[in-house]
Amino acid sequence: QVRLVESGGGLVQAGGSLGLSCAASGNIFSINDMKWYRQAPGKQRELVAGITSAGSANYADSVKGRFTISRDNAKKRVYLQMNSLKPEDTAVYYCNANIKPLGSPFVSDYWGQGTQVTVSS
After folding, report:
1. Partners of 95 in the beta sheet?
2. How far apart are CA 38 and CA 49, in angstroms?
3. Contacts with 29 (C-beta within 8 Å, 6 or more apart), sequence order
4. Which of 4, 12, 24, 65 sits in a 20 to 30 Å window from 51, CA-based?
């Protein structure tokens, strides 16, 4: 059973930093793209950052220069370092990964449960 579990959310003051981590576990053969999404109150879920298996990263314009996505393929983890946080960054952050399970010829999309990030003013 493939699972993604996020950690690192919490309450932080504006201008502060917070690091998120997402661990993939289970019978995994390979992990392709890994992404961070977020959903703020009253808003639709949006893509925050993504990273390929080779390490190529992309960011939403709203977080460029402030957030950094990285991954550790050996540990099957993806990270999101968030600096210079703003109140508008407040949201539930979700980990997403495209994974090929062991014994399967196909890849599937997996989601974590989400972790709350609250930035106070």
Report:
1. 36
2. 10
3. 100, 101, 102, 103, 104
4. 12
Determine the Cα–Cα distance for residues 57 and 69; give it in Å rounded to an integer: 7
First-residue to last-residue Cα distance in the chain: 40
- Inter-residue contact 101 to 3 (CB < 8 Å): no
Look at residue 9 in the predicted model and tell me its pLDDT: 97
Cβ neighbours of residue 49 under 8 Å, at least 6 residues apart? 35, 36, 57, 58, 59, 60, 63, 67, 69, 80
Determine the length of the chain: 121
Instruction: Quickly tell me which residue has 């939403």 as its tokens.
Output: 60
